[in-house]
Amino acid sequence: MKINKAMILAAGIGSRMQPLTLKIPKPLMKIGKKNLLERSISLLVEHGVKEIVINVHHLADQIKDFINNKDLKTKIIISDEKNELLDTGGGIFKGTESFGEDPFVVINPDTVWSSLYKNELNLLEQLYTKNKKTCLLVVDKSLSYDPSFKGDFNVDGDNRISRNNTNQFIFTGMQIFNRKIFKKNEKKIFSMNEIWNDLIVDKNILALKSKQKFYHLNSKNIYEELLKKKIID
């Protein structure tokens, strides 16, 4: 079954990007010809996604205005977290209520997504379809433009994920799963890290290794460097 639903996590405060994000939400910051949010949407639309949920919190009206004033070629649903930020897991849990048991893609727009990721999204979907397990796109730390990342996971030869004190792979911000992974959750506000840790114990999570150079807006300095280098587009 082709995955045609997705969620973009756009509710972050962007504190490490201040003072830039005091006036503009991080997802609307531009790299090249498009802002981060539009890059995420474009990648999903190219993949064939027909319905995208976007959660909002910080400077939410700016994101809503951007969506309303641009033809993004897909159905957009806003999941409003203006009154209470729900963290990554809570945000996804709330935002995807209408998806039922259908699988969906989740994207973090902090990563500078481009059409180079189109094939990797296809491969990630194939991995999910074959195994019916949560699938994450990860990247070796050696491919990260920003050397400050400590790593999130290790990945063995069978694509199985583990964690210890010396993790070699960074989570890129792209994953595929369905809402069954939340069946044990009783919280409203929680991180996806809690869910991932349970999935690792249950051996119910896999990774695909990205081959792309990893650009992620982790700080104001990194953003300014990327603008100067004109790496993207």
Short description:
With 233 residues, this protein is of the alpha/beta class.
Describe this structure in words.
This protein has 233 residues and is an alpha/beta fold. It is 27% helix and 22% strand. It has six helices and eleven strands. It has helices at 36-47, 60-68, 87-95, 118-131, 192-201, 220-229, and strands at 5-10, 30-31, 34-35, 51-56, 75-80, 104-107, 134-140, 154-155, 161-162, 169-177, 205-209. The chain has a seven-stranded mixed beta sheet, with helices on both faces. A two-stranded antiparallel ribbon has the order 2-3. α3 (87-95) crosses α5 (192-201). The protein is globular and about 45 Å long. The two termini are 32 Å apart. 39% of the residues are buried. The mean pLDDT is 94.
Draw up the topology in text.
Blueprint: E1 5-10, E2 30-31, E3 34-35, H1 36-47, E4 51-56, H2 60-68, E5 75-80, H3 87-95, E6 104-107, H4 118-131, E7 134-140, E8 154-155, E9 161-162, E10 169-177, H5 192-201, E11 205-209, H6 220-229
Helix pairs in contact: 3-5
